[in-house]
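tool=predict chain=A
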Amino acid sequence: YEGKEKRFFVGFAPKKGWNRNSYNDNSCGWYLDDDGLLYSQDDEDSRPYTAPIPDGSVIEARYDKLTATISFVVNGVDCGVAFSNVPPVELFPAVSLLYNGSSFRLLPPQ
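tool=predict ok
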């Protein structure tokens, strides 16, 4: 992630309910933001999870269907389970950038 004004969300969203022209952070999906806070459609809003994420960071989002959990790895450091009891719906990787000039690159799994 890189950008002058930080504000991003990365995580997973179900296809149903996603709105590409809207702020989906607490209405559709499960996300980590640049301040290290968690947001979800399960009424989670700004829950502390990890330290603020610096520019140039590599963020890995993990969804474990068997354990119904979502977790994140930031710059090689596993931050632990972020969300549990994730419903058994088909999820897709999701990224939301809120300011012009921000960028995000999707990398292939290692």
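Strands lie at 8-14, 30-33, 37-40, 44-48, 59-64, 69-74, 77-83, 91-97. The chain has a mean pLDDT of 83.
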